[in-house]
Design brief:
2 copies of one chain form a homodimer.
Chain A lengths: L30 H8 L3 H9 L6 H14 L5 H8 L4 E6 L6 H13 L5 E6 L4 H12 L5 E5 L5 H10 L2 E7 L7 E5 L1 H14 L5 E5 L6 H16 L6 E4 L6 H13 L6 E4 L2 H14 L8 E3 L5 H5 L6 E4 L1 H14 L8 E4 L2 E4 L5
Parallel strand pairs in A: 1-2, 1-3, 3-4, 4-5, 5-11, 6-7, 6-8, 8-9
Antiparallel strand pairs in A: 10-12
Helix pairs in contact in A: 1-2, 1-3, 5-13, 6-7, 8-9, 10-11
Chain B binds a DNA duplex (30 and 30 nucleotides) through helix 2 and helix 4.
DNA sequence: CGCTTCTATGTTAGCGCTGTCATAACGCGG
DNA sequence: CCGCGTTATGACAGCGCTAACATAGAAGCG
């Protein structure tokens, strides 16, 4: 009878029921297979592959040859489980089609490069419930750190993040107190500075074109900052126009047309971001308005597209790449949460451009 | 004595060496903790959480309450290892800053939505060696399927992909034979069709503005298709200009200027994509050229920005979202590789626009 | 030459979960 | 009231890997 005894490791592989799991197991090569071929123990193979602990050159060569011969690919599920360290960083952003988020991811990747860590990206679509699901789902991979855009989370999501014990960076804004670490800049202040800058340039008759405030809370903060700067000078917005959907060049174009149709004579229009402002520039081009003489335009973000326009867009450049990079660097440098939440300002700068 | 029985499972936890691993283990709640609190076995909790197998309503409630109370988050590393199924799909794209890739990812996410699967994204930066590393790294997570942009891989990467046994979709192009599945459209044909379309509109004096062919092989295929169409009509490109770097609006603007400075009188310029073509439109605006009368411009991709221009860009629209979505749907519908590689054409269409 | 100190490798015991095979309890028809 | 099919639950044995603790041999040293 082939019902031997099922002892030690896995003699049944062939014994009990002629390869019980072989048919469906496409997995194939494991550490044990490599070890057998190289005639060493599994742990030796493991150590050599991770450059961990000493190893005789001869053994190392034998093992590496066996790895190559078998086409062994380590199983990180097993590795992570055994070492309780997944080498994973969870990242949650609201969108990938708004170019600022891929840019942040670029910074994250740059900082992760060579660290052995891998980013797992979740996209929330500006939806807090989706975000909560993503938090749960990413936490289930036992990441070593987590990066999430913004401060707005459902109570459940916040509880999970806090309770997870992993380091958390909330990025893109610093206008609230973070759970652990915030990296970004103040959108309120950016809006305020925009107002002051434009007032300094002599503009007095302000209009505003924006997009969805519920989803994009940061756009709203910039608006509020702008309004505050105007109020301080005894002024207010003469006209304002906002769509419910996401920002886009087409929306900016339409909304500026709608804003101008409202009537009040304006000398400057501030847009919620560069996409919208670029649309505004297009509207001016199509209708023969020449910025900044006929109408000044101001954006936010410092996107390439705005700078490549025939008349470069006047805007504020934020440091998306730096934000992502800094967040990861700080997270990995200190693996336990500090007692006090930390805030890092990656700043912004005015790009004068030629539209305001 | 509170040392009741706690036996069976892991009595040494407290016995042998007073919590050997407890201090450093921030992990916290495990299935066992939930099971203990709900007074059932671990497997029962596991089954209930996965809706797998029968469960008495009372037990289910007790378990769910315990989960809530403890804040339990399942460990997918352990789950994946035990069930040899990670519920992961690996995705490798060359870039995130070129908007077409986030759009593909959007399709992938849409198809994955509700399936319980999660995408792990790698970005190769148009570098095949980086891509190879990503293949190894993603395969180590034992994904159930893999999506990768393009057909160009190092031999090692190809071997890993083939040997892994998982289903592979090579997306964005269909001009070569895939390992398993290809989803996208023919870039050569798109270029050819562009040529035919423009010839049909009466253009005869063609110029070309492009970007990095080594990294972006698909742009080159479109160029080759265009040249083939011209050759068939006894024509050829009168002038051509190309940068080594990635495409951008600014680059398109500069390169069109350089192209026109070359001398030959042109009546149409074909660009490697819409970013470049938008830059071309900007150059015309800045220099007073009015498309299409003074110079016709043609792009590729059908991006929003091109359509929002004062004169909408004439271009070809490809279906990035559909490509991503289709790839995942086909991959998940059939979990074993078909004997024959399969090719799915997601097509493209001409957007007449107003610049050609 | 006995003893410490490396260096190279192995043994053992899980990591936290799930597949598989029991087992218990409950109808229910004959 | 026996046997049988359900339904609900549990025991057990790993998944593939690695931390922690041996162990064995080779130096190093007074």
């Amino acid at each position: 009878m082939p019902v031997t005894k099922s002892t030690k490791l896995k003699p049944e592989r062939v014994g009990t029921r002629s390869g019980t799991r072989l048919p469906d197991r496409r997995q194939g090569v494991t550490l044990a297979d490599v070890a057998r071929l190289a005639e060493v123990s599994e742990i030796t193979v493991s150590r050599i592959l991770r450059n961990h602990g000493p190893a005789a050159p001869a053994t190392r060569d034998r093992v590496l040859a066996a790895v190559r011969e078998t086409g062994y690919v380590p199983n990180r599920l097993a590795g992570g489980l055994a070492s309780s360290g997944s080498q994973l960083v969870g990242v949650i952003v609201p969108s990938l089609t708004n170019i600022v988020f891929p840019e942040v991811l670029g910074g994250i990747r740059a900082a992760l490069d060579g660290s052995g860590f891998q980013a797992v990206i979740g996209v929330s679509d500006y939806d807090l419930v989706t975000e909560e699901e993503l938090v749960a789902s990413l936490l289930a991979w036992r990441p070593e750190a987590m990066v999430i855009a913004g401060f707005d989370h459902t109570p459940a999501a916040r509880a999970m993040l806090e309770g997870s014990g992993v380091r958390i960076a909330e990025i893109m804004e610093i206008d609230s107190t973070p759970i652990d670490l915030a990296v970004g800049h103040s959108h309120f202040q950016a809006g305020f500075d925009t107002g002051q800058y434009l007032l300094g340039r002599g503009y007095r008759r302000f209009g505003y074109v924006g997009h969805d405030w519920i989803a994009d809370r940061r756009a709203r903060l910039r608006h509020d900052g702008l309004v505050a700067a105007l109020a301080q000078a005894g002024l207010s917005l003469l006209a304002s126009q906002r769509i419910e959907g996401p920002s886009s060049v087409a929306a900016g174009r339409e909304q500026l047309a709608a804003l101008l149709a409202q009537g009040p004579k304006l000398d400057v229009v501030v847009f919620s971001n560069d996409d919208m402002a670029t649309g505004g520039v297009f509207h001016c081009m199509a209708t023969g308005l020449v910025p900044p003489q006929d109408l000044a335009l101001f954006g936010f973000n410092g996107l390439d597209i705005g700078q490549a326009l025939p008349t470069p867009l006047s805007t504020m450049r934020s440091n998306r790449f730096l934000t992502g990079k800094t967040a990861i660097e700080l997270l990995l440098a200190q693996r336990v949460r500090p007692s006090q939440p930390q805030v890092v300002d990656t700043g912004y700068e005015i790009l004068p451009g030629a539209t305001a």
